[in-house]
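Work through what follows:
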Amino acid sequence: MSSRLTVFLRPLLQMGLIPQITIGIIAGVLLALISPQAAGSVSLLGQLFITALTAVAPILVFVLVAAAIAISVITLAAANTLGIPVDFPTALLLCVISAVAACGVSGVAMQVVAIGFVISVVQDSTETALNSSTDVLFTAAACHAAEDRAG
């Protein structure tokens, strides 16, 4: 019996965390629609899940803020390496805006847990797009600076 269960669970365990959570939410909704009595008896699991998510949220906020500040510092280091002068107020403003944006997105995700997964995907996509666009901007600025130095 356990080998059949292992064969069934192996693909689920090899998935990422977000697909596992999504499958769990869908399974919970289907259980509530099919058998409300059974859903009531396992509602403790749902409450534990939500409590665990809210317990982990401050840690996630810290990680997001730290990552935002680290990305800002790396961006400023790249600008400095390319010879682009960045004054302290501009650097401080960039770090503060990054940290506030990370807190804002995390706060919204904590308040709306069900939509938080969508927000995290949008945030990751936006962060990737911003990083890519700043890479293009710094490359263009470096090329422009090299052309100015050359002639």
Remarks:
- The mean pLDDT is 75.
